[in-house]
Amino acid sequence: xxxxxxxxxxxxxxxxxxxxxxxxxxxxxxxxxxxxxxxxxxxxxxxxxxxxxxxxxxxxxxxxxxxxxxxxxxxxxxxxxxxxxxxxxxxxxxxxxxxxxxxxxxxxxxxxxxxxxxxxxxxxxxxxxxxxxxxxxxxxxxxxxxxxxxxxxxxxxxxxxxxxxxxxxxxxxxxxxxxxxxxxxxxxxxxxxxxx
Length: 196
Prior knowledge:
By secondary structure, this protein is mostly beta strands. Helix content is 4%, strand content 56%. It has a single domain, classed as Lipid/polyisoprenoid-binding, YceI-like (Lipocalin). A hairpin with a 5-residue loop joins strand 10 and strand 11 (114-122). It is elongated.
């Protein structure tokens, strides 16, 4: 079996996937983050359980994305730290089990990419978040499913979401950084084709 590369559309010189509703495939996607530790190192982690859709419109600026993340699926590779991150000091997953992102605006971004602005909700606090998104192509898999892929990056101040726990260091500074850098690698499957 071979993979067929699908001809993409070009709108104002930018490559975009075919219009339609695409469901995120979690087994081929990643939701990752990075935070400073003790001001000198970086701790990386991921969320293992999430779902979402990417609705691509004929006019790309009319597109939208919505993603739901299971907060308790946070995974940094350290059980003790993950337990702390699930606690009321951080995500408080028992009271707020879901993180949500819903886009509100899509516009051309830097280079050939797109700037996707939306509402990020953590612990019932909603703040705007802009992601820099690149379209990585579309292809038909060996089973006849049309797939597309995107990469996205963004960053947020965790304290704006009421996640302010920290510990002062003797030498100055704090144990945990305020800025959370996010990276998304998304592969999605076409579920609704508007041309049919």
